[in-house]
Every structure is written in structure tokens, then in C-alpha cells.
Amino acid sequence: MSWWKLPCIRAVYAGLGIVLLGLPAAALREQTPPSRMAEPVKMEVLSALARMSDGSDALVVRFTMEPQWHMYWSNPGDSGAATCVTAALPRGWTGGAPRLPRPQILGSADERNYGYERTFDVLVPVVAPVGSEPPSISVRVHADWMVCKDRCQVGKASVSVEVSTEAVPYSPALHRSYPLKLPPCVRTQMEESPGERVLLLTFASAAIPQRPVRFVPDAVAGVEWVGGTGPFSAVERGREMTLRLPFRVNARDAVDGPPRLRGLLLSGDREGDPAYQFDVLPSDVATVGR
Amino acid sequence: MRFTTAILTVATLTCSALLGAAQQGDPHAGHDHSKHTHDKAEIAHAAPAFSLKGVDGKTYSLADYKGKVVVLEWFCSSCPASGRGEGSFWGSGKAAATVEGLRKADPDAMYFAVNSTKDGYNGMSNAEEGTASAEVMSKAGASVPVLLDADGKVGKAYGAKTTPHVFIIAADGNVAYIGAPVSKDGKTNYVVNAVTALKAGKPVEPATTKNEGCGVKYAKQ
């Protein structure tokens, strides 16, 4: 009898066959095709569009990390790298800039980072073409990221998926973590003196109740916030709170267009506390004397 | 699957503007140019002096390169943005192209890799990490001196935060560029552009860019 016909060898072949046949079946049970990526990050595109509280729809790209690892906001801080997501939509569909949730302030005073632990969603706003109501659309999502704990890994993934256009309500709790428009009560002014410009954000203490109130700058080419990566804390005096944010604009470094003063006003430091988007051109801010 | 390619959404999560040391509290506190002390390298200010031993056993001092452009790149062999893997600055061939471009732009310019990784990180001493760095560079086809900064004093004096993180010192001894070696899309080589501009006596533009990468694993002081 040839050795490969021995019963024990046949059993090994049978076992291998079962394992190999079983692998594709297991993969099909995933909600989306498993992305090829470096551990410890899993990226998935949810199988249906999400309906936001304002009635708009978004594609949800969900990142899930192993415990103790973290990924980064658009300004990673002192180290790390921004999480970048791109989505290709069918002809006629329009997409907005991906929205990242309010980041956590991570690290120590020596190395400050802005990012996420465990899980977070990147929302890609989408609008269907007028008169088009397909039951689903084909999308291709690509993402690049860096994930770190005591060491770092870079990762990327591309997935092509069919997404149902029957939008399901997005979790209100999760939606609260996305930056809101800056309340009109926040007064924005500029102090200018030779060699120094200071952005002043002033508001009634009661208008933004959660403490602390901090400013986290976004990374914008050509803008340098004096004092480093932040976060910058508001100072409460009487019934008012003020953030003094000295900055420099280096026009020759503004490789991505006119430099904007952009960042988040964080109110409180607990999960679900609000963040407000701040984004202005320096020239649009009224100047006051010192 | 039939898929009409209309790429409509692009994340514009690009970064610039070098941001220095983190600081909590009122950022205006202590902000006074007349009293300002430079706790890190700053554009158009004198570069912090250093004297470091290289993996090759030689001692390299900034003072020895007066009148020459000096490029310092903070490096770590185990960082996937810096030295490890095909996507890293050195693993992708971008670093070798940078060194080659630098030598064409200014044959007198010096390029050093600085390793400020603390002893014991990844089970290696700083010297072993430096040797591993030199091996990565040799494999990439562009050997440059690797300087050992085990106590991290030079890295902290410059304000090096990531690997990679580049500081270019002009022939007059002032810092001319701080940031990433190349743009995120890899299309713009900031180092070669800066050295070319310096050689031509032109201003370096951009003089700062946002650096990304692994945090430098400094020894606790």
C-alpha cells in the first residue's frame, strides 16, 4: 500500500479539506468582507447607511481596536499619524468630508496625543442623486492609520461593500460625540501687537456648563499655536470664561491653502460631553486693542 | 460588481504647522518674547549645539560642520514610520532618494540619523538600537552616520517628537527647517527642497511642516 493511502494520512487530508472549505464560509458570515490589515485594528463598513438626527445620511466606517491601543484624530498631537478615510461612491452620489468624533486627550504632559481607544466611527456624509432610490449602493472605502500603545503599527485597509440605502437611525449617544457648531454666545476676537496675535474666545460661564473647557487645535499648515500641541484651558473670571490663544501664521508654510484657525472647544472631559467646532480665517476675526 | 468610479469624498486630514511641547493651562502665561528661552529648536534661531558618539565610534559635533548645511533625522529602527517595514521612510526607498537628492543639491551637506531611543526599549540598548538603525540604512542603500543619544538630551534640546522628525541647520548655524522629511503623499521632498533653496540662497518654503510618526522613546530624566 502506498504511504499516502494509509488511513492516518487520509484522515489528515480530510481534516485539511474541512478546514480549507470552512474558511470561506466563516468569512461570509462577516458583515463586510474582512479587510486585510495589521492587527490590532479591525475596520468595517456598516451594512446600511445611518440616519443622523438632522435627517442626513452617512456611511459609517467603524474602527475597533484591541485593548490599550489607540488611533489618532486629524491632529494626532506630538506623535502618531492622522486617521485618513476616503470613500468612492457610485456616479451621481455626493459625499462630504469625513467626520471624526471628539477625540480623547491621551498621553502625558511630555507627549500629548489626541485620539481614540476601543472603538470609533468615521462618518462620511452622503447625498443621493435626485430621483434615485436604489435599494443599495456599491462603495469602496480606503483608510490609512497608525495605531500605538508602547509601540506603533501602521495599517491600511480597502473594502468594497454593498450598503443598503434604507438608512437606520444612528445611535443618539454616539452622535453626541461629533463636534457641534460653535454656540453664538462665544465671542471671537483678535488681539494684535507687533510680533504677536492672540485669538480670544469669550463666553458666559453658564453658557457652557461642563468643566473643564479646553481648546484643542487642529493641524493646519501655516498655523503655529504658541505653547505647543495644547490642550489650552479656559480661565474663569466672574461670570465669564476666556481662552487666550496666541498663534503665529507663517504664510510661506501654508501649503494647503489659506491658513485657518481651526480646532475643537471641548466642554467637560467625560464620554458624551460636547465638543464645538471652531474654524475661521484670521482675517474674519474682529481685532480689539490690548 | 459593476462600479462606476466617481471618487467624491476625500479625507482632508492633512497636517502642517509644527507644534511643539505640550502645555496645559493658560498658554499665554509666560509668553513674552523678551524673556523667551528656547527650550527647543526654532526657525531662524541658533541650532542647539551637540556632540554625540556615532555607531562607528567617531564623535560628531555640530561645531565641526560650521559653514555646512546639516540635516538631522530622528530615527528608530523598530518604528513603522521610520525604519521598519516597506511603508516606512527608510523601507520605502524615500530616505535613500532623500540622501541622494541632498548630495546632488549640495555635496557638502551632512546628513545624520539621531537615535534617542532609551536603553531597554524593545529589549535593546541605545547602542544596539543604533547598530540596528545602521543596518536598516545600509540595507536601504544609503548609509549615513547614526548618532547615539541614549539620555535623550540632544533630542529634547531640539524638541524632536517623532521618528522621523527632521531638523535642517543652515550654513550660518540657524535652524532653517523643522518637520517631516517628505509630504504625506510622498510627492514633495521637503529635505531636498530645503537644501536646494539654502544652496541657492533662497528662503526655505515651507520652513515647518507637521511631522508624524512614532513618539521618540526618551529615557526618563
Any key phrases for this structure?
heterodimer; A: mainly beta; Immunoglobulin-like; 2 domains; eight-stranded mixed beta sheet; six-stranded mixed beta sheet; 2 helices; 9% helix; globular; disordered N terminus; B: 221 residues; two-stranded antiparallel sheet; 4 helices
Count of the separate structural domains of chain A: 2
Query: What is the correct CATH architecture of the largest domain in chain A?
Result: Sandwich
Total beta strands of chain B: 10
Return the structural class of chain A: mainly beta
Task: Name the shape of chain B in a single word.
Answer: globular
Biggest interface pair, counts: A-B, 75 and 55 residues
Low-pLDDT residue intervals, each spanning 5 or more residues of chain B: 1-37
Strand content of chain A: over 45%
- Ends distance of chain A: 99 Å
Task: Give the strand tally of chain A.
Answer: 22
Quick check: average pLDDT of chain B?
A: 85
| Mean pLDDT across all amino acids of chain A | 87
The string of secondary-structure elements of chain A, in order, is: HEEEEEEEEEEEHEEEEEEEEEEE
| Count of alpha and pi helical runs of chain A | 2
How large, in whole angstroms, is the Cα Rg of chain B? 18 Å
CATH class of the largest domain in chain A: Mainly Beta
Descriptive notes:
The complex is a heterodimer of chains A (290) and B (221). Chain A is mostly beta strands and 290 residues long. Chain A has 2 domains: 41-175, Thiol:disulfide interchange protein DsbD, N-terminal domain (Immunoglobulin-like); 180-288, Immunoglobulin-like (Sandwich), CATH 2.60.40. Chain A is built from 2 helices and 22 strands. Chain B is an alpha+beta fold and 221 residues long. Chain B has one domain (41-215): Glutaredoxin (3-Layer(aba) Sandwich). Helices cover 19% and strands 18% of the residues of chain B. Chain B has helices at 94-105, 126-140, 153-158, 190-199, and strands spanning 6-10, 51-54, 59-61, 70-74, 110-115, 146-148, 162-163, 165-169, 175-179, 214-215. In chain B, the strands form 2 sheets. A 7-stranded mixed beta sheet of chain B has the order 3-2-6-5-4-8-9. The radius of gyration of chain B is 18 Å and the shape is globular.
